[in-house]
Write a structure and sequence with these properties.
The protein is mostly helical. It contains 1 helix and 2 strands. Strands 1-2 form a two-stranded antiparallel sheet.
Amino acid sequence: MSLNMPEHDHCRWCGDAIPFDMAYCSMDCYEKDQARIKKEKNLDRAITSLAAVGVIAILAIGLIF
């Protein structure tokens, strides 16, 4: 079974079919994806900061005792 669908890509947020020259089907999808990316970056920064504080605490405890 072969479907003759025109070549297309998919929206990065919702997955709807879109032309190849587009990444998102609407500004709403773009804004939602940008918010998700920002949230993930903030979470990554928080985890990295927490890990750094943990390493510093371990080193400080090692120097004290």
